[in-house]
Design goal:
Elements: H1 2-16, E1 21-23, H2 27-31, E2 39-43, E3 65-71, E4 80-86, E5 95-100, H3 108-121, E6 125-132
Parallel strand pairs: 3-6
Antiparallel strand pairs: 1-2, 2-6, 3-4, 4-5
Helix pairs in contact: 1-3
């Protein structure tokens, strides 16, 4: 997971032109496999902040917001990126886009599409997971609801 996190940071910087701030996750979120390294966050409606700064809690109430999550067959490989545009603090995502690649962090097409998604929605902020959060296959579509993905043994019992 640590290697993937080190690859996500420059990818995030490249698509946002910002140095990401780290957001600490609660112990509950970490035990639910969110991302053991936390979340990366950037305010897009303000000047960039100094490197290494942690996001204060007041920065987390950003709206509109883009959220991102990486998925893969293990916690060391990201093969799917999902970005969601959330226009207001209450309610569901208005737009969700998914990209698949053998390695979404190394795929220039995926990075360019993610950058275009950011600019098209003019969000005030973006937050992405610091690692993979689960299997790239979708429950109910790729395998039955309530079960484990038969193609991703790493995630068995973890999602």
């Amino acid at each position: 997971m640590a290697d993937l996190y080190r690859r996500i940071v420059p990818w995030f910087r490249a698509i946002t032109s910002r140095e990401p701030m780290e957001v600490e996750l609660s112990p509950l979120a970490r035990t639910e496999r969110m991302a053991s390294k936390g979340l990366l966050f950037a305010r897009l409606d303000r000047p960039a902040v100094p490197k290494g700064r942690r996001a204060p809690k007041k920065d987390l109430g950003v709206s509109p917001l883009i959220t991102g999550a990486f998925y893969g067959p293990s916690d060391g490989q990201a093969t799917k990126l999902v970005l969601s545009f959330i226009p207001s603090p209450v309610g569901d995502a208005a737009t969700i886009e998914r990209w698949l690649a053998e390695d979404v962090l190394a795929d220039d097409r995926v990075s360019e599409q993610a950058r275009l998604f950011l600019h098209a929605h003019a969000a005030a902020g973006i937050t992405v997971t610091g690692g993979t959060v689960g299997c790239p296959h979708e429950e109910g579509t790729d395998y039955p609801d309530g079960g484990d993905c038969p193609r991703c043994p790493f995630w068995k019992g973890k999602q």
